Amino acid sequence: MCGIVGCVSAENCYEKIFTALTRLEYRGYDSAGIAVLNADGVSVRKKKGYVSNLKGKPFAGDTGIGHTRWATHGKPSDANAHPHVCGKFALVHNGIVENYAALRAALVSEGETFFSETDSEVIVKLISRAYTGDFFSAVVQACGQLKGSYAIAVLCADYPREIVCARQGSPLIAGASRDALYVCSDVPALCGAAEYICPACDGEFFRIGEGEICFLDKAGRQIEKTFVRVAPENRAASVSAGTFMEKEIAEIPRALADTLESLQKTDFAPCARALRQAERIFAAACGTALNAAQAFKDAAESEARCPVFCFAASEFRYRDPLIGEKDLFVAVSQSGETADTLEAARLAKARGAYVLAVTNIAQSSLAALADFAIVMRAGPEIAVAATKSYNCQLLCLYYLTAQIKFYRVQEFPDWFCRLGELPAAAESAFGCFPQISVLAAKLKNERAMFYLGRGADVRTAAEGALKLREIAYIFAEGYAAGELKHGTLALVEDGFPVLAVSTSEKLAAKTENALAEAKARGAFTVILSQNERAISESCADFGCLLPALPEKLMPLVSVIPLQYFACRMCLLRGFDPDKPRNLAKSVTVE
Question: Are 299 and 306 in contact (CB under 8 A)?
């Protein structure tokens, strides 16, 4: 969840590291810091708050490391910010050291003094104690004592142009350009800087310095690796006006068009046997991706007539799931680095299941782990709350549904030939925004609301509610409309907002019944539908007409006004939609 950057440069590295850290701000963080090797040893600047707090006279030196921290152990503070220093060493760390309390207690009993509350400081203490002149060996020895996950980059004052790095369960990537060598935790940090990248695998180490990057195992044996050119869609994003979230919502039509083009060029033959013969399909994801996976369950069961079991990835890995060699496992993660999703995929693979990944990053850990990866082309998504990546996840999962049906019964769903209409329909959904702005202005001071739906609209309701919780800090919940009367209706009182998504003609009357029940108890009711009749005949106080598509495809566009609604509510309430409190873009710890 934190961000790591390191650089060995032909010239002063401070500015390079600072710029790279700004590219990692989208991940979510509470403090930042930079350490540089120079004639004085290790110079460190670290502060609670934004990366901008690190501005000032750059430290001289051509080797350094930087970090953006999202608190796990210890509150946000200057002392708990990274890098952490001990003797000749400075370290930045992502992940969680599960046995840090025991290690820390042992070190304190041996006379060590700690200056932070973090688990990370334990690692640099262990390295310093293990050091007898061999930098690499000291890092290996320290890592051997750790349990949990870690990605680390370490400086040593005795090795002025070298960074030693290690990975176990948390992403770490090496990069190279003509004038510098890099390490980072996420590809966007190096976009515009590195020309080539290579991810480390679990259990690997690498050394950066003296014009080369060398991957090694714990015994110091060299590992052959292949570097790839940084993909254009992963290049750095910028925003000149407004917010990244507004920009990314505006990019949905383009993202859908690019993703569809990529899908149409994807050869599904390598996974054909798994799609055709799987007795069961399992899907696992977290957060927004979980809502997309639930939508996949609905579509795949309807079209392919195969049972689909959908789980929160964090629960799947601890429930001893009944998955085996005859099953297909679909893992969904925008970053491809979500810790719980990765572990769920590893468990499924260990039990013999065929693992298929849907991700936005071709070089991600999930894509490398999977037997087959569907890489969407949403482009960089900087705002923490997912928007365009959700639409693209849905498109990939619907396309996968069509492939599953084709390989099973040699025909595609009726809606498959209509996928090309999605970009234009998404752009048409922007026509709802003036109405949605009016609605947001009316509801901006509300403390809670419900989102309702039936069938596929339940998933859209859940995603709309999640967006509102994430960035506007309003309690919101998405429900199956028929469940409202089974307890939840007790919370509805005068003025309580209830929003219903109603895109199924067959279920429209049922959704309307739920709205009527809420309105009878004083609720302020809203309906969103592509069916003019559903809106005109509704009891709702407010209606929004959506662009028309085949009903099965409506989830890909009906969510767009809800994404925009959350963004407007956030801005009207005076918050930053790009950096919601307590949240991170890529959740790389359990």
Answer: no
Residues 6+ apart with CB under 8 A from 146: 97, 99, 103, 123, 126, 168
Contacts of 190 (CB under 8 A, 6+ apart): 20, 173, 175, 182, 184, 197, 230
Dihedral sign (CA 208, 211, 213, 214) = negative
Give, in order, the Cα–Cα distances in Å from 303 to each of 256, 296, 299, 415, 551: 22, 10, 6, 11, 13
Tokens of 552: 């099965």
| Adjacency order of strands within the sheet including 84-86 | 84-86, 89-94, 150-156, 159-168, 205-209, 212-216
Question: In terms of residues, how long is the chain?
Answer: 590
- Residue 182 to residues 64, 203, 260: CA-CA distances in angstroms? 10, 19, 33
Beta strands in 436-578 (DSSP E): 448-453, 475-480, 497-501, 524-529, 542-545
Give the number of C-alpha atoms closer than 13 A to the C-alpha of residue 225, restricted to the C-beta side: 23
Q: What's the chain's Rg over C-alpha atoms?
A: 25
Residue 242 has pLDDT above 60, yes or no: yes
User: Which residue's structure tokens are 């065929």?
Assistant: 354
The bridge status of strand 308-312 relative to strand 196-199 is unpaired
CA-based end-to-end distance of the chain: 10
pTM recorded for the entire structure: 0.79
What structural domains and CATH numbers belong to the chain?
3-234 (3.60.20.10), 238-412 (3.40.50.10490), 423-577 (3.40.50.10490)
Distance CA 191, CA 213 (A): 18
Query: What is the tens place of the pLDDT at every residue in 323-371?
Result: 999 999 999 999 998 989 999 999 999 999 999 999 998 888 899 999 9
User: Would you call 148 exposed, middle or buried from its count of C-beta atoms within 10 A (0-12, 13-18, 19+)?
Assistant: middle
Distances (CA, A) of 522 to 55, 452, 489, 518, 519: 53, 16, 11, 7, 5
CA distance 336 to 186: 10
**What is the C-alpha to C-alpha distance for residues 475 and 497, in angstroms, rounded to an integer?**
11
| Cβ within 8 Å of residue 562, ≥6 positions away | 451, 460, 463, 464, 467, 499, 501, 528
Task: Report the distance separating Cα 299 and Cα 168, nearest Å.
Answer: 36
Q: What positions carry a catalytic annotation?
A: 2, 585
Look at residue 94 and tell me whether its pLDDT is greater than 50. Answer: yes
Helix (H) or strand (E) holding 470: helix 457-472
